[in-house]
Amino acid sequence: MIMNRQPISILYLEKPMRYGRYVRYTELLRRSRRENLVFCQHYPVVTMGVQTQASSLLLSAEDFARNAVDIVPVKRGGDATAHEPGQIVIYPHIDLRSRKIPLSDFVKAMLDITSESLDSVFGLKLRPDAKAPGLYTDAGEKVVSSGLEIRSGFSSSGVAVNYSNELQTFSFIHPCGYPGLRMQSVLQLTGQAEKKHDPETDAKKKEFCRIWAERFIQSFSLYS
Fold this sequence. Notes:
Layout: E1 10-12, H1 19-32, E2 36-40, E3 45-48, H2 61-66, E4 70-73, E5 80-83, E6 88-93, H3 96-99, H4 103-122, E7 127-128, E8 134-136, E9 142-151, E10 154-161, H5 186-189, H6 199-220
Parallel strand pairs: 1-2, 3-4
Antiparallel strand pairs: 2-6, 3-5, 6-10, 7-8, 8-9, 9-10
């Protein structure tokens, strides 16, 4: 469904989608320079950024298949990360070139807006790490992953927030290439993990997405 009326098209996809389908979709957007903002979730997949090391994958290709986990090389920066149902994945497809948006401002805004929105809706205060893009608890647990793909001045990929996902797919890799990096989810941190299917939990998820979209659009004046 399309969330309310917004300056640019905003899609909130409630059912998980295969990552390969997203790749095909984003290529269509890139060719047409059609901008939008997508909130979605994926079936279990490990995406391998351009800096992925072989040691980051802890299973063989056969074992990934046995666990029903897709493996997809991608052109974004960074090492391997995981997506799975319950995670909030945010994809901004924006023509940075025509809008004259500096890449550094765009990258910083995505994490700042994510941090502010999580604090506003859930009271979570997470911190960035200059050496490892994302947002972390004070104990060093990672909750938010980020990675952009910019080609021809057009953005894809984006931000992934561990919301209600069980984090199992992350156990098959060294997340972002860091052995021992512990992943956390919003519902675990707020003591709501047992309520992942409650209507209130779903409502808070949508509120987070709404606030994120509003702040993102305002930050870059995406009104046309």
